[in-house]
Amino acid sequence: MKKLYSALMTAFNEDDTINESGIREMVRYNIDHNHIDGLYVGGSTGESFMLSTAERKQAYKIAYDETAGKADLIAQVGSVNLKEAKELAKYAVELGYKTISAVPPFYYHFTFEQIKDYYDQILAGLDVQLIIYSIPALSGVTLSLAEFAKLFENPKIIGVKYTNNDFLLLQRLRSAFPDKKIYFGTDEMLISALPLGIDGAIGSTFNLNAARAKAEIASYEAGDMKKVFELQDVSNKFILALIDNDIYPSLKLVFEEMGVHAGYSKAPMSKPTAEMRAGAKKIYEQYIK
Ligand code: NGF
């Protein structure tokens, strides 16, 4: 059975400090209501690249404590600062995370040798498995099939979180590495990734839309493609409405509509305007209620 992971959000207070109870509420909602297979902690949806090292650690710890073994956990530790990535990886392992993930080092257009060395250094001396976080549109780093092959030579690297709309590369990855895990990360294109043999999906919108995504996966596995299309169609109207309303703050606003106190996004992300609040209420009423 393919797995579904929510990319956990980080709740903030209005002054941009971490709102611990908000993170706990979202973890509980994912476990108790979504019955989610796992949580991806500290990724893009967690707004992690805007957090200090101490705040990133705090988020891993809150998620770990609140999950209490009831779901899989993956800590995204990637950073352009290798020393920070190593420190975060060590911290996550010490907390008890069995799997970490890391975006390739970004911004400076590193060579592939430098990228490979970054992953090997993060993993050195740690008893943990790693999923590469491939998200070229945001990181600016595109890995080729041959480069994935070289990274996968490290036996601790067990797969990839693939947030990329290159379906040719996805198919070639699946064919070349049947034993590696591939988790797809573009929620609105799940329908196109399912036939390519993905092991599951990790995404932001599953925080609110897990039931529909699970039904889509089940329909796909039952061979009911008409149902798969219908479910993806509703999901896409929901996802595109969220994107139009500013996705991360809006996911939190919809959570608030449901009584889950998800807090704010961190500046420079927007604080909600009256218009965004109205938009989120409408999204909740149309697609979630
Ligand atoms: O948020 C992004 C940016 N992508 C996420 C996901 O792939 C990454 C995706 O769910 C992620 O969740 C994380 O690292 O925390 C989108 O939000 C969704 O498909 C709407 O476009 O690309």
From TrEMBL:
Pfam families: DHDPS. SUPFAM superfamilies: Aldolase (SSF51569). Signal peptide: none annotated. One of its GO terms (molecular function) is N-acetylneuraminate lyase activity. Keywords: Lyase, Schiff base. Its EC number is 4.1.3.3. It comes from the Bacteria. PROSITE patterns: DHDPS_1, DHDPS_2. The keyword ATP-binding does not apply. The keyword Lyase applies. Belongs to the DapA family. PANTHER family: N-ACETYLNEURAMINATE LYASE. This is N-acetylneuraminate lyase. It comes from Loigolactobacillus zhaoyuanensis.
